[in-house]
Fold these 3 entries.
Entry 1:
Amino acid sequence: MTTRGAAVVIVGAGVTGLSAGWWLARAGVDVLVLDKGIVGWEASGRNGGGATHVYSPFGLEEQRLWPQMDELLGYPTEHQPFRIGVALSETQLALARRWAEIGEARGFRWELLDRRQLKELVPIVGDNAIGGTYLHFGGHANPQRTVQAYAWALQDLGGRILQHTTVTGLVQRGGRVTAVETTRGTFGAEVVVIAAGPQTGLFAEMLGVALPLAPARVEMIATEPIPLMSVGGVAGNGLYGRQTLRGNLVYGGGPHEWINVPDMATPEHRNTPLVRNLARRLAELFPGAAHVRMIRAWSGLVENTPDGLPVVDRLASPDNVVIATMSSVGFGLSPASGRAIAELVQHGRCSFADLGALALARFADTPEDWRERAGWIATRQELELAAGGDG
Amino acid sequence: MRGVDRRSIAGKGPRAERHVPLVVVGAGAAGVAAAVEAARHGVETLLIDEHPVDNDMMAMDVPLCFGQRMQPAVRNRALMLERVVESNPALAGAHDAGVDVQLGTYVWAAFVGGPTAQELPGPMLGLADERRSWLVSYDRLIVAAGARDVLLGFAGWERAGTLGASGAAALLARYRALAARRLVVIGSGALGLHTAALALEHGVEVAGIVELDERVRGDRAAANALAARGVPFFTAHTVRAARGCVGEIESVVLAAVDGQGRPITRRDREVACDAVCVAVGLVPSVELLHLVGARLRFDGPRGGWVPDVDGWMRTSVPSVFAAGDCAGFHDAMLGAPEIAHEQGRVAGLGAATSLGALDRQEAEQRRYVGAAPMPPASADPFGHWQAWLRSLIAASGWEVNVCQCEEVTRRELVETRPPRYLKWDSPQMSARSLATLLRDGPVNQDQIKRLTRAGMGPCQSRRCREQVGLLLAHSAGVAVEHIPLPTFRPPVRPLPLNVLWPPDEPNAMREDWVSWFGIPTQFSPHWEPGMVLDEPTAHARLIVSDE
């Protein structure tokens, strides 16, 4: 049975797939986005919301687009400009400066803050802070609201989204993918975009393409609201995150847990006692908010390539497939990554960024056991290896 | 030896401060019976209860809706501890049986391992008091966490004095600290009548019992006894508003309704009172059961989402048992604590048997000596709650807050409006609503929570969870049971960062902590290919190189 397909079928309604779909719909392309669950339900909707990635080939476009996104989409993203880095040690200050200098190299402005200046901007920092950086670039947005904004804007332009539709296979004919098989029928496609997060590697495998990806679980915490600071994008002390426009402090960081994703089903999102360590780090970062209550915690699953950089590439064969994984840093870059993917679909190349560093070919010689070599393996797997189950 | 990613959790799994073979959560009838039974068979047992809850927690309507009607005496912890112990004579029996009883202790999380959490050495609970938090691991867990009130809003329900029946009962009987003199009770079912009788017993006047139905729903004899003591019944009435000055309730306006629950014009009456107690029903407190991954199913007559349990009150997670109201609440259990007691006893027996403390045959013999552990199912309360909600909407309109913490009105919820503080307006946004969302998929309360913020506040959706579900079901035209259970996440009690934080951390946790994965090339500037930017740790200074 073939249900009505689309010129472009996108597998995965995460932030990258939705942005790509929205850019395609803007260009008048007939687009269909498929997802096993609800739009943006995985890491795309539950991350730190940071939008400060000027180091990336997509960095300048990210910075150019974010201030326009509310207007372009027609829905709120809660984007707020600027970032403040708080340093509790010389080492942390060196890192914060390095981030600032990377921005400076791209023509952005920043200033060094002494403790007094820092405290004026961020009243909840304590005497343990030695200083910080004020980036007059970058920013943050609300991930949940943004993914829904992409989805709605895509629909407003005539694009379609099918939720609760798990992709089970890719139909190949004559060196091309001609259709996508799902739990709700088969959808014909001229071009297929695979932006399925941790599952992206499994789809690549279906096409006989090796895409080295290691999934991991990470955790975040949120506090009750506190009075709004003039800049909400404050982070440091090994934490990423922000103050939301409602006033909640929402932060993550610390050790990740490498896991395995054996199939298309999403493993459960579990929190662990790591939330206590996060609470400690956050109270150290903001001694003035140490008494504030934690009201929520959650975890998310993200995937990484061996070098931590995205793969955004149009395959050589089958030649009508674009593969996209942002290697655990997808939300902030989404306005630009989606545009790049749309251009790869339409024109086979990206007009505004050099995607050379993001090509899949760089992993051509990656050994099959690269995760073991890197130590990026799940505990159970590690135990099996130690017991001699290797090989 | 292969290298392990030092920035990962590998080898840094949390360690529990204490291991106890059996932990029982909740010292009500079920929990105490469970603990005593297990201890009787030689099982080392820890029984935990959060009461007395501190004043700050109560002020947030956690864990029950106390409606700001606490007497200042609740700040006196020692006094409250005395009263809590006094009100629960069975606790002395637990002490005598050798149970380690810890009162005033919150269970704020249940952590269990799984495919994505393999570093957890075993299941553990997050516990806390006002000063610190700690972890306790267990072999068996019995959850006897009780039930929560179903709250339904009306105009002015944010005012001090709107309580839930459980909150009122706790303040009356356990704390003896209810700061109210004239109470209006909403609901004339078993819960409403029970609450009214309890209030009278503690010297609180009952200014009326309001019932939507044309007749009193509960036991006739109980209702007659209340009427004989001068309690007025307002049947075929709904609530229009609570009124008063300076944030207080001084009266409640009731509206007479027709057979369809719609207010009849010019038939309002105002009843003076200083508290309104919503006593239309209870739902099982399944937070911890959800967190441990016990299979829950929707069973309307038992209050909605309940754990699947076997004849030993064992859940689908073999190490976890559930007993009492949290295993399924039923009106018959209100006046009959022996039901919860028996469930608890059976759970204690089951846990002890599974730990090898007694053999199965002996356990079988001891299993049912008292009341049948499950009352017969009666009518589904959800239809009645829906009828209440419809009448409240008809009487108080769509501008009433459904979520108090985040100030989300009924209208904003079903229009899936972004929060007011965003001051967002666009034609696209105005065209979106619950109805348009339904075209994309079935109702999902968590998704609507993220969009509207209903349920995202410090009370952790205790006051709005059920009414948001009922309202969504009402507006979407679906049965409540078809809306998936909104998730519970730790901490299931809102606790300060400086209580939740661990006093000490393993060196590896502190030393190798990085904000993200610590992949040296992840954030390297693309114009300097191969550049390494190694996030510093305790041992390593910032490394920037193109090695």
Entry 2:
Amino acid sequence: MTPVAQVEEIRHRTAGGNAVAIWRSAPEDGAESRGTVILLPGFGRRMRHYAVIARQLTQNGLTVYRLDHPNHIGLSDGIIANFTLSGVEEGLRATLELVRTTERSAGTVIVAASLSFRVAIRHAVTADLSGIVGVVGVVNPRQTLARVFGVDLFDVTPDGAPRDVEFEGHRVTSSVFAPDCLDNDWLELEDTAADLRCVQSPVTNLCGSSDEWVLVADVRQAFASGVAKGRVVVEMPYVEHELAKNPVAVNSMLAELTRRVWTYCDPKSPANEMIELTFDEMAEQIVFERHLETTRTSEGVKGGREE
Amino acid sequence: MNAGGPRQVSMPAMAEIDRVIFGPDPFQLSEGEQANLRLKLIREAVEYHLHHCAPFRAYAARLHFSIDDVQCGDDLERIPQLPTGLFKRVVVSSGIDKAVCRPCTSSGTQGRLSVVWRDRCTIQRLLGSIQTAIAGLIDDPPEKDVLVVNLGPNQAEAGDLWFAYVMSLIELAYITRHMVVDGRFDPSEAVVAIERAKREAKVVVVTGPPVLLRQVSEAALRTKRVTTSNSEFTVVTAGGWKRPDGSGLDRQALTELVASAFRLQTSGRIRDAFNQVELNTVIFECSSGAKHVPPWVHVCTRDIRTLTPQPNDHIGLLSYLDASALSYPAFLISDDVGRVKEGRCACGRYGPTIEIQRRIERAEHWGCALKMNAFLEPDMPEIWGP
């Protein structure tokens, strides 16, 4: 048995007053951190679903902050019926503020999964970041959402009502989600490209060649607008959007992700030999974090120190 | 790098076999598609192990085998296979980094145990064969709707003990309560756990060896605690069909006992899963009770005395070519006697199925072992690898 990597549970308030549940993990044995990563879950995913990524990064010298989005499933305030992309950005902003006041390491990189990648790009327009790495990152939300739900969320039913949708048993209220998308230009590929033109940080997107929700061609198109600032598209053969279903692909993705984050956090530092997790380390961490979340949920207590 | 566009990097390390193992139900592919895939994946695996496992390469050379001999499905039988007894004597390896490998030990109680070293990728693929099958069995509900009651220990307590470890891995996919704690198993507590799970989850899966399932079913009937519930209830048996005293358990009788104890309407909800420590794939039963072989595994039978490959539907030694193992060549001649069937199963799916009848008998074993030893090295090194 290898020991699991512990997490520090934090609750931090957004500007709007929502409490965001954050898990912080740091390199073991008090080793100096090579940089800080903010890990943004995809839609319908919780921070504990990223147990393996967080452990891989901390084991390789990085400090990782993860959060459950506000108004979403997970341990943060709010319910998923009120989910918006602006709410995701609010959670990210609050977490970044916390990182700035807490961590001494120089570089901060956002690792954003799926739909959260769109939010990370928007936030990087104004925030000073060392880099962004997307994991099957969405660049064309209108098209991705249409493929996921099979209906256009931004259309109305024949009787004029907005189309509410369900994702893995969770209802998303279109009358809340859609206006936020339309009012804040979250939706179109062109909006993403426009944001990327203003982003000074380097950006990588790890894409799956078999991903039907995020087309590699769309990513290339969006990235073409900001080439001078360092844009990289990594294509992973045979990989679909639900990357976690293929853990062998995750192994390769983890190595690439770690290399990218190292480079962004500390470009001058020599690349260390990467530490790979064993299967048992991965398995124990997944089980430990699910148990931790279940315990918090069943306690009805949103645990952790208040910041 | 393309001029004027973003830098593009491709990651060639990912393999088609992982798309198949971790992808949608492979049994939905047509018989022809499965056969083509099987040939391609196994051919690639053989090439890999010929390159990375010198003793396997030498063994193949002694049999005058070349990968070019494998051009169609019928040629798969030419691929050299290892007696599973080899894993009792030496470490079979296509490259082992002990830092990322774990030894997997057979659950047998007699004689020397088999030890198989698996790396991360090899275990992940094994896990894939379990998760894909169970997800298909329960119709892939969201994780939050499923509770598993495992009549065995958790990962830590299972240690290197193969079947207990394999079944504990289900916890990676679903919330799981383990019923063996500190080596102790109480059937009545398991009944309580199952009843609680029925109240809490839409889908309840009970996994465990037949021997323990029998004890739990008897306890359920004795205590009369079982209630009706709207949750879907599925039982997966895995492990030996032997009682502690060595006598066999009757499959039909156990199915009836479980159905009666847990008030199941259909025995189709009780499935058996087959594996042995040297094989890297768990083979699950369908609703018609047939064990379907996925398209990354080829199974044939061999004559018990001569080891000559036999046509389908003939009783013989079950022999496997499993493309999913990376850390060792999982090309095996087992100690199990059975048969392979082809064609459309009553469940509607196509492809080969296997039927396991019995273990090889001692007298048969001697002849068989002599035949196999003739191909292996006289002075075998302790590590049969690079």
Entry 3:
Amino acid sequence: MSNIFPKSANKLPLQIIIYLVVFASLATAGVTYYMTPKYTRVGYAPVQPVPFSHNLHAGQLGLDCRYCHSNVDKSAHSNVPTAQTCMNCHNQIKPTSPLLAPVRESYENPAKPVPWVWIHQTPDYAYFNHSAHVNRGVSCVECHGRIDQMDVVKHAQPLSMGFCLDCHRNPELHVREPADVFNLGSKTIAQKSGADAGMKFVHDWNIKPPQSCSGCHR
Amino acid sequence: MKRKFHHPESTERELSGPKYWRSLDELADTPGFRAQLEREFPQGAAELDNGDRRHFLKLMAASFALGGIGLAGCRRPEQNILPFGKSVEGIIPGLPQYYATAMPLRKAAIPLLAETHQGRPTKLEGNPTYEGHGGASSLLAQASVLDLYDPDRATAHTKAGAVIDAKAVEDLLANINRTYAATRGTGLAFLAEESSSPTRARLVARLRTAFPNAIWAEYEPATDEADPAGARAAFGRDVKPIYRFAAAKRIVSLDADFLSAEAGSLYYARSFSNGRRVEKAADSMNRLYVAESGLTLTGSMADHRLRLGNSQVLALAAALGAKVMNNPPFPVSLAEGLNFKNQEKWIAECAADLQEHRGESLVIAGAHQPAAVHAIAYAINAALGNIGKTVEFLAVPASTAVSISNLAGSIKSGAVKTLVVLGGNPAYNAPADLDWAALQGSVGEVVRFGYYVDETSLVKPAATTQIAAAHYLESWGDARTVEGLVVPIQPMIQPLFGGLTENEVLARIVGEANADSYTLVSTTVAGLAGRPAEQVMTKFLHDGILGGSAYPTASVTFNAQGVGALFASAAKAPALSESNLEVRFVRDYKVDDGRFANNGWLQECPEPITKISWDNVIQISPALAKKLGIEPKGSALQVARKEENEFSIGKENARIFELKVGGKSISGPVHIQPGLSDYTVIVPLGYGRTVKHLRIASGAGFSAAPLRTTAAMHFATGATLTDTGKRQLLANVQEHWSMEGRDIVRESNFEKTATSNGNSYQENPAFVNTIGMESHSPPIYGAEGGKLSMGEKATDTPRGQSLYSHPNFDGVHQWGMSIDMNTCIGCNACVVACQAENNIPIVGRDQVARGREMHWIRIDRYYSSGTIDAAAFGGEGNKELPEDPQVSLQPMTCQHCETAPCETVCPVNATVHDDEGLNTMAYNRCIGTRYCANNCPYKVRRFNFFDFNQRQLDSLYMSQLGPKGMPELVKMVKNPEVTVRMRGVMEKCTYCVQRIQNGKIQYKVKMAKAGDHAKTAVPDGTIKTACQQTCPVDAIVFGNILDKESRVSKAKAREQDYAVLGYLNVRPRTTYSAKLRNPNPRMPDYAAQPLSRTEYDKKNHPAGHEAHPGAHGGAGESAAQPSHEAKKEEAHK
């Protein structure tokens, strides 16, 4: 009986193993890169119903974040302003602009809220609290990036669990003076006066960011 | 390059997020919503049974294919943020708001604070401004928020079955007003429920003047206040008693379940516990004597409990009265026919104890007892000088309502043309001899105001107008607490289905100019306060109480002549036997008289004594069971004691018996209940609803209404029980009744007596250390452990005898809990409070029967009889069911062990400790191996065997093939601060971690704003767990054990505080304060130590091996117990 397999088939097992290893490595690398928030979320910049420019309002006009996001220091949620907040100015400025039509409509008719697209969305099982951060030296810019320079808001940071923990493990590198929290161009204490100053601030303020599950998951 | 996503336009539905009450009306009319409503619990979902295997595989293949195609699912779904158009004052998205309101129930409302999230009420707490409840609330109040979102409630006004709009209802009511204005009300009749609302009283008074000929009748199937005739006869005026339990050292209850069934039971439970609580040996403790027919929560707290038929309570009252008083104002012959063991001595010693505590004793009779019993109780209280001290009488307005029998007479005579039924459900629960359904059917026009389309609505739909009632959380209203304080009922939300309030309906009929609910209430309140509404209402609504509005205390003197007439007609106690049984109809702990029968939280909550959920049962005594030939099998090899009932694979396999009284009969499952009077049969009301679309209520239990007659509403004699040969499986959550002589609940007698032998609490307050494994094993925390404080033990984690060393806890707080079993009355309010707070799903009867209930906290109920044989099987003492058991109740929930056995076995680190000592569950990590539940010594972990939140309860086993999704209405009750868990994850008590985190954050924010940044330790009392907050008796204390001044640290420092199963070295953060009993050494049934201790001794120190308290050194846990150490040192020398 002649051989069914040619001699070259002797190498086949080794080849299969090599291919499998290569494939597995590629798959792992692919998943690690493409299926993490770093890739899927960062840069996400959906078209909003009203082309509101943070660059213009917060950057050039210098409005404080809290003029619109008025409850960010009180509540877990940073509220998106009501149409009434927009109309405080826009009943004088550009009162007839077609771009502001959804805002005017919402102001007149409570059944027609402006459908802002939610960008910075944490999963339902993660309970992030804005007030706990902005009152304790964590600036908006740490998670949201230079919103004041964005015409269209985009997702600047991955907001993954690893991202959160980076800061919770080393808060001294990320805290700012209370006066700088809403100043997105400001420097952290560590950048201004060195890591030791950051450490001192963390110590003086008794900042102990939770690293246990219960800190965020309930 | 910037990526731009163009999303499709949001649909109408997506945009209608935060305005629930506006869209739900619309939503309710869409076909999709209707279909969903109908699908929620369809009867007999048998799709899978009908399909063959091939069909099933095809479906599976299709769903896999769909799964492959649906790669779009990888993207996170697009969601919108929908801010208000105009800002709403006070609303901060993400922060809850609290409003004062009250839950009305008969004549005693419970003041509440409602927590709302963006306009949705999700949780109710007691209003702390009202001192009588101190911020606590009851089981029913906790569950009532679910009724608001009941998909089965009446969703529209209908006339002859057709939907009519609000305008048509207005016209109809105005028409009634016009029609009867001419006849001054002749032909118009009302049947209402009892109410404490001052506004309703005002409108009824208005009705009396506008329509003097109209009939106003009130009916309550379950009574919770004493017959006013008793007080009227005794004191010559309309007064009602209010009891001051805190001031009473000796309490005698004559069949009164004042801890759960009487009006104001919450108020009473709280003050009773204040007289019961013992923190140190020098404290005093009240003593409770209870004579009762069934085993109630009050009876389970008794120090001396006498089993006695209802019909013999009058005789006991007379016998006791004759001993206490020299010239009793009643014939002594009333006491004839009384017959129980050691009768003379029992009564004499009880009376002597009362006489030794003149002015600080209290006799209370059950609301269902006839006026004669109440008159005797008042006489005894008067003779003992208790009036004005432990019992006060409040002047109350006399009721002008006629009874349902009078109304029935008028209907029969044809005098009623229009019948307005305001609430209630007479067609279901009116006395059977009235034949209410036929009577109601004979009336030409029936206007039915009700929350559900129920039996009464369906009597004769063609002639009936159904007006949908608003829930109290949707209504403006007012009510009075038990002592008469006026409290507001505020709406939290617009009526979801356009329901009206009772006051609105009544006001339109009497022709009130402005029938708006708020105006009606503010007018009443302004009238009561004597000031204009705008000056009163703001404070009234803010405080939730109208100060100074309580009923005035009346100074009363007992009038011996007045009561004579009551005794003339008093019946002699009949001799009871198995052919002349006595039936007692009791208000159910959970569904009351049936009004809460469609509430899934309540139905699933186990009955506190029988531990059965979803059904009612005919309770019979073990003695009667024997006579009827029911012999529970039990005594399986694993179990040393006889079972109280038969269980097959965890399900109670009950026999169905037919119960016959006076020619009428019902049949239902029989449950053998230790502690019942031998020939009394207990039948809870409120079950056996026949309306199919009430999906929770229908199919639960049987109705006792056919047996009730006007003459015997609360108990009847002459009943018989016969076996039907059928069986029914019941969902009983606790199979076994005995602790088997273990030290789970540690108990002691309170007082030092001649026979207490050093075992009483007063002699040895640290007695808990002499019981159990720890008293023999080496000290858990090592020899030094006794010197460490609670907080140091938590942060230093001394290795002790442990094989391992443990990492220290370094959080700012260390959380701990202490549960006082001495005051716990087992009311189950904590169980439902936890369910409401933590989004715990309902699993249904079938799953409960399989042991898959999801409650994070349960209350274990143990009986002890003192008879136990150390020999495990077949010992004589193990063969009998207890007749006179002592009851021990123990709330059991996650103990947050510092060295938690669950954590070491979790393969994915889903359950781990946090730095503040919480045993946390990360749901999104859990893969559902259930190893943790296996390894938990307390059995407090709960597994989501199904997606209980997303799937219909009767199609759980269809898994992915069944319909999915939570009804819109049910979504609204969920607490947004807590994850809604999915199938396949483990869950358990978290110490309300959401409250802890939010409490900490809010405190930090507050301090940061005040410039005090370094302060992060939350002050004691800021954070309360849901169970603690609702506990009527303050049995649960939670807080930071690092803070030596915190309430929990003090509670844990009590000498009677111990860890359950502490010898396992799991170091639980939840500890228990031992239960104390305070029996009278002169009583014939005095036991020198609690029966559970007797069992413990018999089991652990069998005959010939004398109890040797000295040899039990204590585990070195307590500095007060150094004997072990001392002996060791001696040995070293």
